[in-house]
Amino acid sequence: MHRQAREIFDRSLRQSAIPAAFARQLRLEDGRIFISGSDRDFVYNLEQYSAIYIVALGKAALPMTETFLKTLEAQPQQRRIRGICSAPTLPGRPHSGIEYFAGGHPFPNHDSLHSARAALDLLSTANRETLVVFLISGGGSSLFEAPLEKEISLEETVAFHRALVGCGAAIAEINTVRKHFSAVKGGRLAAAAADAPKLSLLISDVPEGRLDALASGPTVPDSSTLEECGAILERYRLFDQLPPRVRAFFIRPDLPETPKHLPGLAHSRVLLSNQDLVEAARRHAEALGWKTEIDNSCDDWDYREAARYLLRRLRELRSEHTRVCLLSGGEITVRLEGNPGSGGRNQQFALACALELAENPMDASCPPRIVSEPARPEGIAILSAGSDGVDGMSPAAGAIADATTVTRAHTLGLDALAALRSFNAYPLFHSLGDAVVSGPTGNNLRDLRILLSWK
To answer: Where are the beta strands (DSSP E) in 331-395?
Structure first.
Protein backbone atom coordinates (compact mmCIF):
# COMPACT_ATOMS: atom_id res chain seq x y z
CA MET A 1 0.00 0.00 0.00
CA HIS A 2 2.93 2.35 0.63
CA ARG A 3 4.22 1.70 -2.87
CA GLN A 4 0.86 2.16 -4.54
CA ALA A 5 0.05 5.33 -2.58
CA ARG A 6 3.33 6.84 -3.75
CA GLU A 7 2.64 5.69 -7.30
CA ILE A 8 -0.79 7.35 -7.29
CA PHE A 9 0.70 10.59 -5.98
CA ASP A 10 3.59 10.61 -8.47
CA ARG A 11 1.32 9.82 -11.42
CA SER A 12 -1.15 12.55 -10.49
CA LEU A 13 1.72 15.09 -10.46
CA ARG A 14 2.94 13.99 -13.89
CA GLN A 15 -0.53 14.16 -15.40
CA SER A 16 -1.01 17.70 -14.04
CA ALA A 17 2.08 19.10 -15.75
CA ILE A 18 2.06 22.76 -16.76
CA PRO A 19 3.24 22.37 -20.40
CA ALA A 20 0.40 19.92 -21.07
CA ALA A 21 -2.14 22.31 -19.53
CA PHE A 22 -0.91 25.16 -21.74
CA ALA A 23 -1.04 22.91 -24.82
CA ARG A 24 -4.63 21.92 -24.05
CA GLN A 25 -5.92 25.45 -23.61
CA LEU A 26 -3.64 27.86 -25.53
CA ARG A 27 -2.65 28.00 -29.15
CA LEU A 28 -1.14 30.60 -31.48
CA GLU A 29 -2.63 30.75 -34.95
CA ASP A 30 -2.43 33.45 -37.63
CA GLY A 31 -0.94 35.93 -35.19
CA ARG A 32 -3.72 35.40 -32.64
CA ILE A 33 -3.67 33.73 -29.24
CA PHE A 34 -6.67 31.50 -28.57
CA ILE A 35 -7.44 30.59 -24.94
CA SER A 36 -10.09 27.91 -24.63
CA GLY A 37 -12.25 27.21 -21.58
CA SER A 38 -15.39 25.50 -20.37
CA ASP A 39 -17.44 28.70 -20.28
CA ARG A 40 -16.03 30.84 -23.11
CA ASP A 41 -12.99 31.31 -25.32
CA PHE A 42 -10.75 34.40 -25.46
CA VAL A 43 -8.92 35.62 -28.54
CA TYR A 44 -6.08 38.19 -28.59
CA ASN A 45 -4.89 39.53 -31.94
CA LEU A 46 -1.21 40.25 -31.43
CA GLU A 47 -1.19 42.60 -34.43
CA GLN A 48 -3.02 45.11 -32.22
CA TYR A 49 -0.20 45.36 -29.67
CA SER A 50 3.17 47.04 -29.88
CA ALA A 51 4.44 45.27 -26.75
CA ILE A 52 3.71 42.31 -24.51
CA TYR A 53 4.40 42.60 -20.80
CA ILE A 54 4.65 39.43 -18.72
CA VAL A 55 4.42 39.43 -14.93
CA ALA A 56 4.90 35.94 -13.48
CA LEU A 57 4.83 35.14 -9.78
CA GLY A 58 4.49 32.05 -7.63
CA LYS A 59 5.99 28.60 -7.28
CA ALA A 60 5.13 27.75 -10.89
CA ALA A 61 6.35 31.09 -12.30
CA LEU A 62 9.39 29.67 -14.11
CA PRO A 63 7.67 26.83 -16.04
CA MET A 64 4.70 29.09 -16.78
CA THR A 65 7.00 31.79 -18.16
CA GLU A 66 9.03 29.32 -20.22
CA THR A 67 5.93 27.64 -21.63
CA PHE A 68 4.22 30.91 -22.52
CA LEU A 69 7.35 32.27 -24.20
CA LYS A 70 7.59 29.08 -26.29
CA THR A 71 4.00 29.69 -27.39
CA LEU A 72 4.95 33.20 -28.53
CA GLU A 73 7.96 31.94 -30.50
CA ALA A 74 5.64 30.90 -33.33
CA GLN A 75 4.24 34.39 -33.88
CA PRO A 76 4.91 35.77 -37.39
CA GLN A 77 6.33 39.06 -36.11
CA GLN A 78 8.42 39.44 -33.00
CA ARG A 79 6.80 41.78 -30.52
CA ARG A 80 8.69 43.68 -27.85
CA ILE A 81 8.53 41.37 -24.83
CA ARG A 82 9.40 42.65 -21.37
CA GLY A 83 8.65 41.05 -18.07
CA ILE A 84 9.18 40.27 -14.41
CA CYS A 85 9.39 36.74 -13.02
CA SER A 86 9.50 36.04 -9.27
CA ALA A 87 9.98 32.34 -8.53
CA PRO A 88 11.65 30.28 -5.79
CA THR A 89 14.77 29.86 -7.94
CA LEU A 90 16.47 31.54 -10.89
CA PRO A 91 16.34 29.94 -14.36
CA GLY A 92 19.21 28.10 -15.98
CA ARG A 93 18.59 29.84 -19.31
CA PRO A 94 17.00 33.26 -18.78
CA HIS A 95 15.06 35.04 -21.53
CA SER A 96 16.65 38.33 -22.53
CA GLY A 97 13.47 40.35 -22.07
CA ILE A 98 12.62 39.04 -18.60
CA GLU A 99 14.04 40.23 -15.28
CA TYR A 100 14.20 37.32 -12.83
CA PHE A 101 14.02 37.34 -9.03
CA ALA A 102 14.42 34.52 -6.49
CA GLY A 103 11.67 35.40 -4.04
CA GLY A 104 11.34 33.99 -0.54
CA HIS A 105 8.93 31.35 0.71
CA PRO A 106 7.19 30.86 3.11
CA PHE A 107 8.30 34.38 4.02
CA PRO A 108 9.32 37.27 1.76
CA ASN A 109 12.94 38.20 1.14
CA HIS A 110 14.65 41.14 -0.57
CA ASP A 111 13.87 39.77 -4.03
CA SER A 112 10.20 39.42 -3.10
CA LEU A 113 10.03 43.17 -2.49
CA HIS A 114 12.28 44.14 -5.40
CA SER A 115 10.28 42.06 -7.90
CA ALA A 116 6.99 43.63 -6.83
CA ARG A 117 8.35 47.16 -7.07
CA ALA A 118 9.91 46.37 -10.47
CA ALA A 119 6.56 45.02 -11.71
CA LEU A 120 4.72 48.14 -10.54
CA ASP A 121 7.27 50.30 -12.36
CA LEU A 122 6.90 48.24 -15.54
CA LEU A 123 3.09 48.30 -15.47
CA SER A 124 3.07 52.05 -15.02
CA THR A 125 4.35 52.30 -18.62
CA ALA A 126 1.59 50.09 -20.09
CA ASN A 127 -1.09 51.55 -22.35
CA ARG A 128 -3.90 50.37 -24.64
CA GLU A 129 -1.34 49.04 -27.13
CA THR A 130 0.30 46.86 -24.48
CA LEU A 131 -0.96 43.33 -23.83
CA VAL A 132 -0.27 42.51 -20.17
CA VAL A 133 -0.14 38.80 -19.36
CA PHE A 134 -0.09 37.78 -15.71
CA LEU A 135 1.10 34.24 -14.93
CA ILE A 136 -0.07 33.55 -11.37
CA SER A 137 0.44 30.52 -9.16
CA GLY A 138 0.34 29.69 -5.48
CA GLY A 139 3.12 30.89 -3.24
CA GLY A 140 3.00 34.33 -4.80
CA SER A 141 1.85 35.88 -1.54
CA SER A 142 5.39 35.68 -0.15
CA LEU A 143 7.42 35.46 -3.35
CA PHE A 144 6.01 38.80 -4.54
CA GLU A 145 5.27 41.50 -1.99
CA ALA A 146 5.27 45.28 -1.52
CA PRO A 147 3.80 46.85 1.63
CA LEU A 148 1.25 49.56 0.89
CA GLU A 149 3.06 51.63 3.51
CA LYS A 150 6.49 52.05 1.92
CA GLU A 151 8.15 52.79 5.26
CA ILE A 152 7.49 49.23 6.48
CA SER A 153 10.77 47.30 6.27
CA LEU A 154 11.48 43.80 5.02
CA GLU A 155 12.03 42.61 8.60
CA GLU A 156 8.65 44.01 9.64
CA THR A 157 7.03 42.46 6.57
CA VAL A 158 8.49 39.05 7.42
CA ALA A 159 7.27 39.34 11.03
CA PHE A 160 3.79 40.19 9.71
CA HIS A 161 3.73 37.16 7.38
CA ARG A 162 5.11 34.88 10.11
CA ALA A 163 2.37 35.90 12.54
CA LEU A 164 -0.31 35.24 9.91
CA VAL A 165 1.00 31.82 8.87
CA GLY A 166 1.23 30.58 12.46
CA CYS A 167 -2.06 31.92 13.82
CA GLY A 168 -4.24 28.97 12.74
CA ALA A 169 -6.43 30.98 10.36
CA ALA A 170 -7.70 29.48 7.10
CA ILE A 171 -5.81 30.49 3.97
CA ALA A 172 -8.71 32.65 2.79
CA GLU A 173 -8.59 34.56 6.08
CA ILE A 174 -4.83 34.95 5.89
CA ASN A 175 -5.09 36.30 2.36
CA THR A 176 -7.81 38.77 3.35
CA VAL A 177 -5.35 40.39 5.75
CA ARG A 178 -2.45 40.18 3.28
CA LYS A 179 -4.49 41.91 0.58
CA HIS A 180 -5.19 44.95 2.74
CA PHE A 181 -1.51 45.20 3.68
CA SER A 182 -0.07 45.05 0.18
CA ALA A 183 0.41 47.33 -2.84
CA VAL A 184 0.24 44.34 -5.24
CA LYS A 185 -2.39 42.06 -3.75
CA GLY A 186 -6.20 42.26 -3.81
CA GLY A 187 -6.35 43.45 -7.45
CA ARG A 188 -3.85 46.25 -7.00
CA LEU A 189 -1.25 44.73 -9.35
CA ALA A 190 -3.70 44.66 -12.27
CA ALA A 191 -4.98 48.11 -11.37
CA ALA A 192 -1.43 49.40 -11.85
CA ALA A 193 -1.69 48.53 -15.56
CA ALA A 194 -4.38 51.19 -15.98
CA ASP A 195 -6.27 50.81 -19.28
CA ALA A 196 -4.05 48.13 -20.82
CA PRO A 197 -5.80 44.87 -21.80
CA LYS A 198 -4.98 42.23 -19.20
CA LEU A 199 -4.98 38.43 -19.31
CA SER A 200 -4.40 36.34 -16.18
CA LEU A 201 -3.43 32.69 -16.64
CA LEU A 202 -3.72 30.86 -13.33
CA ILE A 203 -2.40 27.69 -11.71
CA SER A 204 -4.72 27.56 -8.73
CA ASP A 205 -3.92 26.40 -5.20
CA VAL A 206 -7.13 27.80 -3.68
CA PRO A 207 -10.68 26.42 -3.32
CA GLU A 208 -12.84 26.45 -6.42
CA GLY A 209 -14.53 29.81 -6.96
CA ARG A 210 -12.07 31.74 -4.77
CA LEU A 211 -9.64 33.10 -7.34
CA ASP A 212 -9.23 36.31 -5.37
CA ALA A 213 -7.40 34.18 -2.78
CA LEU A 214 -4.83 32.77 -5.25
CA ALA A 215 -1.51 34.47 -4.41
CA SER A 216 -3.77 36.90 -2.53
CA GLY A 217 -5.58 37.88 -5.74
CA PRO A 218 -3.17 40.38 -7.36
CA THR A 219 -5.03 40.56 -10.69
CA VAL A 220 -8.71 40.05 -9.89
CA PRO A 221 -11.26 42.27 -8.10
CA ASP A 222 -11.21 41.65 -4.37
CA SER A 223 -14.33 40.42 -2.60
CA SER A 224 -12.96 40.89 0.93
CA THR A 225 -13.43 44.07 2.96
CA LEU A 226 -11.63 46.18 5.52
CA GLU A 227 -14.23 45.13 8.08
CA GLU A 228 -13.44 41.45 7.48
CA CYS A 229 -9.73 42.18 7.72
CA GLY A 230 -10.16 43.85 11.10
CA ALA A 231 -12.37 41.02 12.37
CA ILE A 232 -9.71 38.43 11.45
CA LEU A 233 -6.99 40.42 13.20
CA GLU A 234 -9.17 40.51 16.30
CA ARG A 235 -10.33 36.88 16.12
CA TYR A 236 -6.79 35.48 16.07
CA ARG A 237 -5.40 38.12 18.46
CA LEU A 238 -2.91 39.25 15.86
CA PHE A 239 -2.60 42.91 16.82
CA ASP A 240 -0.33 42.03 19.76
CA GLN A 241 1.89 39.91 17.49
CA LEU A 242 2.49 42.57 14.83
CA PRO A 243 5.47 44.95 14.70
CA PRO A 244 4.50 48.44 15.93
CA ARG A 245 4.66 50.02 12.47
CA VAL A 246 2.47 47.29 10.96
CA ARG A 247 -0.01 47.56 13.84
CA ALA A 248 -0.16 51.34 13.33
CA PHE A 249 -0.80 50.78 9.63
CA PHE A 250 -3.84 48.58 10.26
CA ILE A 251 -5.47 51.00 12.71
CA ARG A 252 -5.14 53.99 10.36
CA PRO A 253 -8.54 55.67 9.90
CA ASP A 254 -7.76 56.29 6.20
CA LEU A 255 -6.70 52.72 5.34
CA PRO A 256 -7.74 52.29 1.67
CA GLU A 257 -10.08 49.54 0.50
CA THR A 258 -8.94 47.05 -2.13
CA PRO A 259 -10.23 47.44 -5.74
CA LYS A 260 -13.68 46.00 -6.38
CA HIS A 261 -13.49 46.73 -10.12
CA LEU A 262 -10.50 46.82 -12.48
CA PRO A 263 -9.90 49.33 -15.26
CA GLY A 264 -9.76 48.23 -18.88
CA LEU A 265 -10.38 44.81 -20.38
CA ALA A 266 -9.42 42.02 -17.94
CA HIS A 267 -9.86 38.27 -18.41
CA SER A 268 -8.81 35.31 -16.26
CA ARG A 269 -8.42 31.63 -17.10
CA VAL A 270 -7.61 28.77 -14.70
CA LEU A 271 -5.31 26.32 -16.49
CA LEU A 272 -4.89 23.86 -13.60
CA SER A 273 -6.42 23.41 -10.15
CA ASN A 274 -6.57 20.95 -7.30
CA GLN A 275 -9.54 19.32 -9.02
CA ASP A 276 -7.25 18.30 -11.91
CA LEU A 277 -4.77 16.79 -9.44
CA VAL A 278 -7.46 14.82 -7.58
CA GLU A 279 -9.06 13.59 -10.80
CA ALA A 280 -5.70 12.38 -12.08
CA ALA A 281 -5.22 10.48 -8.80
CA ARG A 282 -8.70 8.99 -9.12
CA ARG A 283 -8.02 7.70 -12.63
CA HIS A 284 -4.79 5.99 -11.62
CA ALA A 285 -6.20 4.53 -8.40
CA GLU A 286 -9.06 3.00 -10.34
CA ALA A 287 -6.62 1.64 -12.93
CA LEU A 288 -4.82 -0.11 -10.06
CA GLY A 289 -8.08 -1.75 -8.96
CA TRP A 290 -9.10 0.46 -6.03
CA LYS A 291 -12.71 1.39 -5.38
CA THR A 292 -12.23 5.15 -5.26
CA GLU A 293 -14.14 7.89 -3.48
CA ILE A 294 -13.41 11.63 -3.39
CA ASP A 295 -14.20 13.68 -0.29
CA ASN A 296 -12.91 17.27 -0.21
CA SER A 297 -15.16 18.39 2.62
CA CYS A 298 -12.37 18.85 5.18
CA ASP A 299 -10.72 21.68 3.25
CA ASP A 300 -9.39 24.26 5.74
CA TRP A 301 -10.21 22.04 8.75
CA ASP A 302 -7.87 21.63 11.68
CA TYR A 303 -5.52 18.72 10.91
CA ARG A 304 -6.68 16.65 13.91
CA GLU A 305 -10.33 16.99 13.00
CA ALA A 306 -9.53 16.15 9.37
CA ALA A 307 -7.58 13.03 10.44
CA ARG A 308 -10.45 11.68 12.53
CA TYR A 309 -13.05 12.49 9.88
CA LEU A 310 -11.23 10.93 6.92
CA LEU A 311 -10.31 7.78 8.84
CA ARG A 312 -13.93 7.42 9.85
CA ARG A 313 -15.05 7.83 6.22
CA LEU A 314 -12.47 5.26 5.09
CA ARG A 315 -13.71 2.72 7.62
CA GLU A 316 -17.28 3.30 6.49
CA LEU A 317 -16.26 2.63 2.89
CA ARG A 318 -14.22 -0.47 3.72
CA SER A 319 -17.30 -2.07 5.23
CA GLU A 320 -18.64 -2.27 1.69
CA HIS A 321 -15.48 -2.86 -0.38
CA THR A 322 -12.30 -4.90 -0.03
CA ARG A 323 -9.93 -2.37 -1.64
CA VAL A 324 -10.81 1.26 -0.98
CA CYS A 325 -9.03 4.49 -1.94
CA LEU A 326 -10.31 7.70 -0.37
CA LEU A 327 -8.94 10.88 -1.98
CA SER A 328 -9.09 14.29 -0.37
CA GLY A 329 -7.83 17.52 -1.93
CA GLY A 330 -7.28 20.98 -0.51
CA GLU A 331 -5.40 22.20 2.52
CA ILE A 332 -5.82 21.65 6.24
CA THR A 333 -4.69 24.07 8.94
CA VAL A 334 -2.15 23.81 11.75
CA ARG A 335 -1.95 26.37 14.50
CA LEU A 336 1.70 26.60 15.49
CA GLU A 337 2.66 27.06 19.12
CA GLY A 338 5.95 27.50 20.94
CA ASN A 339 9.08 26.83 18.91
CA PRO A 340 7.99 24.49 16.08
CA GLY A 341 10.43 21.94 14.69
CA SER A 342 10.79 20.58 11.18
CA GLY A 343 7.62 19.53 9.42
CA GLY A 344 4.48 20.82 7.77
CA ARG A 345 0.74 20.39 7.64
CA ASN A 346 0.91 17.19 5.56
CA GLN A 347 3.34 15.44 7.90
CA GLN A 348 1.38 16.70 10.89
CA PHE A 349 -1.80 15.18 9.40
CA ALA A 350 -0.08 11.88 8.60
CA LEU A 351 1.31 11.61 12.14
CA ALA A 352 -2.10 12.42 13.61
CA CYS A 353 -3.55 9.57 11.53
CA ALA A 354 -0.79 7.23 12.72
CA LEU A 355 -1.65 8.00 16.35
CA GLU A 356 -5.33 7.41 15.67
CA LEU A 357 -4.61 4.07 14.00
CA ALA A 358 -2.38 3.04 16.91
CA GLU A 359 -5.22 3.97 19.29
CA ASN A 360 -3.07 6.64 20.87
CA PRO A 361 -5.23 9.54 22.00
CA MET A 362 -4.09 12.96 20.83
CA ASP A 363 -4.93 14.41 24.22
CA ALA A 364 -2.17 15.99 26.28
CA SER A 365 -3.65 14.50 29.43
CA CYS A 366 -3.20 10.93 28.15
CA PRO A 367 0.24 9.47 27.41
CA PRO A 368 0.53 7.30 24.29
CA ARG A 369 -0.16 3.61 24.67
CA ILE A 370 2.62 1.79 22.83
CA VAL A 371 2.16 -1.89 22.13
CA SER A 372 5.35 -3.81 21.46
CA GLU A 373 3.94 -5.82 18.54
CA PRO A 374 0.35 -5.43 17.34
CA ALA A 375 -1.23 -8.78 16.61
CA ARG A 376 -2.68 -7.58 13.31
CA PRO A 377 -2.24 -3.93 12.35
CA GLU A 378 -5.22 -2.38 10.63
CA GLY A 379 -4.75 -2.53 6.85
CA ILE A 380 -4.74 1.21 6.25
CA ALA A 381 -2.08 3.50 4.77
CA ILE A 382 -2.25 7.29 4.45
CA LEU A 383 -0.16 9.52 2.21
CA SER A 384 -0.46 13.29 2.53
CA ALA A 385 1.73 15.56 0.45
CA GLY A 386 1.91 18.95 -1.24
CA SER A 387 1.90 19.17 -5.01
CA ASP A 388 4.62 21.83 -4.84
CA GLY A 389 7.02 19.31 -3.27
CA VAL A 390 7.45 21.40 -0.12
CA ASP A 391 5.75 20.80 3.22
CA GLY A 392 6.33 23.62 5.67
CA MET A 393 9.85 24.04 7.03
CA SER A 394 11.14 20.64 5.91
CA PRO A 395 12.82 19.01 2.89
CA ALA A 396 9.79 16.75 2.33
CA ALA A 397 6.56 17.12 0.36
CA GLY A 398 4.73 15.10 3.01
CA ALA A 399 4.71 11.62 4.53
CA ILE A 400 3.07 8.22 4.52
CA ALA A 401 1.80 6.54 7.69
CA ASP A 402 0.04 3.36 8.79
CA ALA A 403 -0.95 1.43 11.90
CA THR A 404 2.67 0.42 12.58
CA THR A 405 4.16 3.92 12.38
CA VAL A 406 3.99 4.66 16.11
CA THR A 407 5.39 1.26 17.12
CA ARG A 408 8.21 1.41 14.56
CA ALA A 409 9.10 4.89 15.75
CA HIS A 410 9.12 3.65 19.37
CA THR A 411 11.64 0.91 18.50
CA LEU A 412 13.94 3.69 17.24
CA GLY A 413 13.53 5.64 20.46
CA LEU A 414 11.21 8.20 18.88
CA ASP A 415 8.08 9.53 20.59
CA ALA A 416 5.30 10.09 18.03
CA LEU A 417 3.07 12.10 20.34
CA ALA A 418 5.96 14.36 21.37
CA ALA A 419 6.81 14.90 17.70
CA LEU A 420 3.18 15.84 17.01
CA ARG A 421 3.03 18.31 19.92
CA SER A 422 6.30 19.98 18.93
CA PHE A 423 5.38 20.13 15.21
CA ASN A 424 8.51 18.10 14.50
CA ALA A 425 7.20 15.25 12.37
CA TYR A 426 9.85 15.24 9.65
CA PRO A 427 12.72 13.69 11.69
CA LEU A 428 10.41 10.83 12.68
CA PHE A 429 9.19 10.08 9.16
CA HIS A 430 12.69 10.50 7.75
CA SER A 431 14.06 7.97 10.25
CA LEU A 432 11.34 5.50 9.24
CA GLY A 433 11.95 6.00 5.52
CA ASP A 434 8.38 7.27 5.18
CA ALA A 435 9.00 10.91 4.27
CA VAL A 436 7.76 11.71 0.77
CA VAL A 437 10.60 13.65 -0.83
CA SER A 438 10.15 14.90 -4.39
CA GLY A 439 11.96 18.22 -4.35
CA PRO A 440 10.24 21.37 -5.64
CA THR A 441 7.96 20.39 -8.52
CA GLY A 442 7.54 23.78 -10.19
CA ASN A 443 3.79 23.37 -9.73
CA ASN A 444 1.35 24.22 -6.96
CA LEU A 445 -2.11 22.64 -6.92
CA ARG A 446 -2.64 22.40 -3.16
CA ASP A 447 -2.33 19.14 -1.23
CA LEU A 448 -3.45 15.60 -1.91
CA ARG A 449 -4.36 13.05 0.75
CA ILE A 450 -4.54 9.39 -0.31
CA LEU A 451 -6.07 6.94 2.18
CA LEU A 452 -5.94 3.24 1.23
CA SER A 453 -7.63 0.33 2.98
CA TRP A 454 -7.14 -3.31 2.07
CA LYS A 455 -8.77 -6.02 4.14
So the answer is: 380-386
